[in-house]
Amino acid sequence: MAAKLRIALIEPSQIVRTGLEASLSSFGAKFQVLWSFSSISHFTSFSDEIDPDIIVVNPALFDQTGAEKVKTAINNPRDARIVAFAYSIISESLKRQFSAVLSIYDTPSEIAMSIERVFQKEIDDNELIQSGYTPHPVEYDLSDREKEVLVSVAKGFTNKEIAGIHNISVHTVISHRKNIVRKTGIKSVSGLTVYSLLNGLIEQ
Amino acid sequence: MAAKLRIALIEPSQIVRTGLEASLSSFGAKFQVLWSFSSISHFTSFSDEIDPDIIVVNPALFDQTGAEKVKTAINNPRDARIVAFAYSIISESLKRQFSAVLSIYDTPSEIAMSIERVFQKEIDDNELIQSGYTPHPVEYDLSDREKEVLVSVAKGFTNKEIAGIHNISVHTVISHRKNIVRKTGIKSVSGLTVYSLLNGLIEQ
DNA sequence: AAAACAATCCCCAATAATGGGGATATTAAG
DNA sequence: CTTAATATCCCCATTATTGGGGATTGTTTT
Question: How far apart are CA A124 and CA B177, in angstroms?
């Protein structure tokens, strides 16, 4: 790895962009943040003209439902490694879509090491696949109605209230809830609430 | 406001510290980040030797239960304005303890304006008090046991399971839950889960 | 066209939670 | 020393949820 790693940064916070650029430039021999964007659409409009080795992106910029895949959302013709740089909780299904997940609390040297490790891991990945490991495929596929009911559950409404809100009978609410539990494997209201928060179904 | 505002920064992320320092220095005529700390204890060991006009602090560094008051946690003999610099959701009760709440998504100039506004607001504050306004006083005061039970509720355990975990009878669990509902005013499990997340009682 | 899924409704029995009312012992604060 | 708060326990009745079993009518998907 003689050449410098060319980094493209997609990060909405100007403060964080400035901080990352300055911090990574202190490892000048190894890294160069050559491109810096505040949004994915901003990145996309330039993605054919640049050729980064690594795309460092804030995972909060993605649809957190898991419906949108990171690899299709990011136009990446030269197959750069995509690394997340997170400063809040993100869902497991989103995490799995990145080569690495960095944290805002990592020190610059930790970040540098993680990025280097991403390139070392390329070899290991093949071994993992040979040894029967497949990257976790699970992604819950809730129907629109099920999501609506889930949101109401997460907001703390009782089945009777949910029935009223959606103009359906309590029986139907219960049916939907049974399917939600079956699909997600999450039985408790609190678990479903956290799931809804993580997947961007509700805010606050 | 002829003199430069002297800023002390308490922020665990080195990346963010670097970014804020660089960004605020571009307003060199008005601001100076003179001191920079990674934790409150680090700040405290120097707080008698420095005299900032403003303390910019990451609110995540505080006990999010609201039990610990920001003004007592931060040794602030010269009564500097305390401003929060947040990059995740924080509870309303914590927000109210700061002169301003900045966001990591604010641009440097927005941050600069907000900080200037803090000093203008000093005058207005007196008027607000005269006109009958009092800063919201509500702060739930859950006992240790109640917090423990709340955490278990938020983790999705049933009353029976919680009783087992804490070696008390289901009756006692129910009693604690009654008191939690009475004190917080939050009736639903999902509401209590969000409360626990916001107040840092549970992670994930 | 058949199969799978979505959305709606129903019954039943068991389990869990809510809301009201207690009680007692200990500790902390005024 | 009295009061308030905490922590523990109990009873009762009502309401809610869970988990099992259905059914029907559409709409996609293969």
Answer: 50
Q: Can you give the residue range of the structural domain that contains B61? A: 5-130
Which residues make Cβ contacts (< 8 Å) with residue A55, sequence separation at least 6?
A7, A8, A10, A43, A74, A76, A80, A81, A82, A83
For residue B117, the tally of other CB atoms under 10 A from its CB is 12
CATH number of residue B118's parent domain: 3.40.50.2300
Compute the C-alpha angle A187/B203/A112, nearest 5°.
125
Task: Give CA angle at B72 (B69, B77), nearest 5°.
Answer: 145
CB atoms B154 and A190 under 8 Å:
yes
Q: Where are any strands of DSSP class E within chain A? A: 5-10, 31-37, 54-57, 81-86, 100-103
Measured in angstroms, the CA of A48 and the nearest CA of chain B are apart by 27
Q: What sign for the dihedral angle of Cα B126, B3, B106, A56?
A: negative
Pick the last residue of a domain from B130, B156, B185: B130
pLDDT digits (tens, 9 = 90+) for B172-193: 999 999 999 888 888 888 888 8
Amino acid at B132: G
Contacts of residue A63, defined as CB under 8 A and 6 or more positions apart, other chains included, come to A73, A200
Phi/psi for A8 (5° steps) reads -110, 135
pLDDT in tens, A87-106: 766 665 677 778 887 877 77
Indicate if B110 and B160 belong to the same structural domain. Answer: no
Could you tell me if B23 and B71 lie in one domain? yes
Chain A contact set for B193 (CB, 8 A): 189-190, 193-194
A186 and A96 assigned to the same domain: no
Q: Which of A130, A152, A182 marks a domain boundary?
A: A130
Ranges in chain B, pLDDT < 50: 1-2, 122-139, 204
Residue A176 CA to residue B25 CA, distance in Å, equals: 55
Residues B126 and B165 in one domain: no
pTM of this prediction exceeds 0.85:
no
Q: State how many domains chain A has.
A: 2
CA B175 / C1′ C22 distance in Å = 12
Does the pLDDT at position A127 exceed 50?
Answer: no
CA distance A2 to A9: 21
Residues 29-88 of chain B within 7 A of strand D, judged by CB, are none
Same domain, B19 and B90: yes
